[in-house]
Design brief:
The protein is mainly alpha-helical. It has a two-stranded antiparallel ribbon with strand order 1-2. Helix 1 runs antiparallel to helix 3. The radius of gyration is 18 Å and the shape is elongated.
Length: 89
Amino acid sequence: MAANDKRRSYWRKNLQYLGILLSAWFIVSFGCSILFVDFLDRIKIGGFRLGFWVAQQGSIYVFVVLIFIYVYLMNRLDKKHGVDESNRE
């Protein structure tokens, strides 16, 4: 595989990860906080409606978890393509 093909493959996979993770964040932050809030408000956690909780706290927690998932996936992708930190001189 040519170096240019490796770069394209790496970048394509990176964009795929970004698209999936940002879509998940969008669904949670916009969908659950705005579109599905009436449905989620039927459920209460600790006296607070779930729609309110997701809008105030949940989307932030999901974002932080998605950051860790992205780091894990990128470290794995870096090793696969030989551009991880252990290959640096």
